[in-house]
Amino acid sequence: MPRWSILILDVAIVVMCFTAFWFFRETLSNNNYTYFLLKIVTITGIYIFSSTIFRAHHGVVRFSTWKDLYRVVLSNITAIVLFTIAGILANSTTNGMECPVKFQLWFGPMVGLIILAMQLLMRFTVRSVFSYLESNIPKEKKSIFILGSEHDSVLLAQSIRDENQNPYKPVAFIALKEAHVGKSLAGLPVLSAKEGIKRHMERYNVQSMLLYKNQIDMMPKEFYDLCIVDGLELLAVTSYSKFKGDENDQNIPTIPQINKIKIEDLLGRNAIEINKALLAPYFEGKSILITGAAGSIGSEICTQLTNFKCKRLTLLDQAETPLNDLFLTLSTLKGDIKIKSVIGSVSNEAKMRQVFECAQPDIVFHAAAYKHVPMMERHPSAAVITNVLGTKVVADLSVEFGIERFVMISTDKAVNPTNVMGATKRAAEIYIQSLFHHLKETKPEIKTHFVTTRFGNVLGSNGSVVPLFKRQIEEGGPVTVTHRDIVRYFMTIPEACSLVLEAGCIGNGGQIYIFDMGEAIKIYDLAEKMIRLAGKTPGKDIEIVETGLRPGEKLYEELLATDENTLPTPHRKLRIAKVRQYRFDYIRPRIHKLITTAAEWTQPVEVVKLLKNLIPEFISQCSPDYEKLDIENGYKEELPNEQKFIDK
427, CA 20 to 30 Å: which among 6, 21, 341, 560? Predict the structure, then answer.
């Protein structure tokens, strides 16, 4: 109903109440009512004025809330006060003469209270009628459990039960705490999780459970694993408000945002709260260059940097479409940050020099890299050109242009590498670490801080198994796993990027930061869990097929080499790896030879041979041609350790 119609209803109530009370009073007192029409016009005008001031007619009547009723009460109190003041003035200025608005002082408050009661009654009646009609419309609703028996869980159950537009019907609470078990909350029984989820599902014919997103981290991980195995669908409320005010201040009901739990939510990783107060001074007013900006990690770094008062973000990548999408997304965000996208390769020194000259960056986040292990096993020259030469070009230009901080994104595959990709990332780590210590000794005036961050797989990235498994499940299977016993470390993209930003700021230079990756996850178990989350049964609805380890792949990833140890940092999820530090005069000619050989696109074996010479711990797996090099072992250059490493 439009606002004017609600105002007409309120005015009609005023007229009816005033008329009824007037004639009741006149019948008792036998006075005449010559000025009745003028008086009713006066009180109607007063009520229209007060209703307009307090916007008492702006709400949608069928969705009236206490806020609406509060405005109605204020409007009526104001009208009563104005009516009474008008009566006092009329009685005191007429000197006994008849006045159109002259009346006894008790009349205004009495009729005002009756009008208030009738207006409130009208709103309650309309709301009740609509609720009754909606509740009696037959609807097929899905029975669900509500996780928890705390105050928020009870409110959630009540809200869903009262909101007729949602497709769910709460039938019971599932509580891990025994305090409320056996009791009734909001008319629903409280069941014990310890008695067995399967038993409750069969008894109440329920296949789904609803929970708040923040409850995921509060409950034991084993509890959710049990729910998934029992076939219980897990649904999460990500956001919910009973009423939402729009720009016209009308109350419009909103439906809970309920989505299926994702595998990313169940990997036992607590969200990281980025310390904005600590990091803000490092980024405020700074120009920042992000290489590989369109990738999974690069794009999230860009997004998180928009939370700070940066001066400029320069986004560099070779991928045209993802870079354009990122640019359009960041351009819509609020803020005064200048955003510029650049298409280019980090291995192109001329292009990168142009970028540095134009962007004048203060900080560089180097996320550009080739990362697919089997692909790089087949194309080691491409891996060297991008991962080693690209890093060298950006690092050298950072020194030349006086960059404050250079932060490189590395990988756990650089630890005791078994593949070309990991070896090239380890070579890049060695180069920038040796470069930093060389500059520190020979050119202390150069203040560029080189920091490396090393972590494992990120969920949802382009190279993660999670998107692959999702696609295979949607297609009906089979889900392919390379080996039943293969395990990997996982973390979310926002978590990884938050740690990258913090490590990049607190690092003094030359460090390799190791992220706390939590517990290793068995990929086979991950596949089973994702199938069950999709409502399917592994081995029955969707098969899991082992395809064998791919070239360069190993069963277990490592975050630290066997002869390394770590040092603590102020952040509990960051540690500093104590690694061997190579001399720059030893590393530089070998890196140059490696890059030159790769640039000539010679036989892959020749490139890998140089990588193995540079990185003795690089032992190939599942790559027969490269494993022969490890067996021969006659190509490695033997030099005294003091010529290779910095003594510490």
Answer: 341
